[in-house]
Amino acid sequence: MTLLRDDDLAAAFDHASRSYDALVAANPGYHAHLRRSVRRLGLPGYGAGLRLLDLGCGTGASTAALRSRLPAAHITAVDASAGMLERAAAKPWADGVTFVHAPVERLAEAGVKGPFGAVFAAYLLRNVDDPDAVLTTVRELLAPGGRLAVHEYTLSGRRADRAVWTMVSRGLVQPVASALGDGALYRHLWRSVVDFDTADRFTERLREAGFDRVRALPLPGWQTGITHTFVARRPETAR
């Protein structure tokens, strides 16, 4: 199948937004893994005085993970899908959370400007046409020394991990999604993962984009070898 991109992908997420929370709730560890990736940013205290950028916030699961660990930070949460963003914004939030409808490639046009102390991007980079350009934008939005966490499906490169991902996707996720009318999106999900970087390659991509202190950290449970947290930093000084 052809991968969904840009407006087609946003429209697919718009349609899926009504059932998205129920589907991810059936994924063991989904929310706990997001919170673990937030902790791996290693940000001090409760985030007081920090501006955080949540890229690809969807229905707000990543925003909630940031809020739970860093309740005093100001969070700007961005998504290209109006339907997903509407679901996120309708949830109860304390002060300090702002939602912006924009594709990651057009943040400046939407008024999203740095510097940010940290950027969190969950399940985003494999869905963009040019991940290198997006990483360059992210680096420029970060303050010197600012931190990045990418929470992403990135296979280890072992055949066993690809087999598990295919079994779960085709045997469990796609049949349910198809019954809900969202089969195309979740077929895209499977394909986008197997076509994307391995964990080692994405680590190198981050270094090539100008980040330092790059680490790839596996997540536990059935997603070990399938999903990773990548943590990195914008250097304090230009190279």
Automatic annotation (TrEMBL):
Q: Which residues cross the membrane?
A: none
Entry keywords, A to Z:
Methyltransferase, Transferase
Tell me the superkingdom of the source.
Bacteria
Q: Which SUPFAM superfamilies match?
A: S-adenosyl-L-methionine-dependent methyltransferases
Read off the InterPro entries from this record.
SAM-dependent_MTases_sf (IPR029063)
Q: State the Gene Ontology terms under molecular function.
A: methyltransferase activity
Keyword Iron-sulfur assigned to the entry: answer is: no
- Gene Ontology biological process terms, A to Z: methylation
Asked if the Swiss-Prot or TrEMBL record annotates the protein with the keyword Transferase, the reply is yes
Q: Which Pfam families match?
A: Ubie_methyltran
This protein's name? Class I SAM-dependent methyltransferase
Which lineage is the organism of this entry classified under, starting from the top rank? Bacteria, Bacillati, Actinomycetota, Actinomycetes, Kitasatosporales
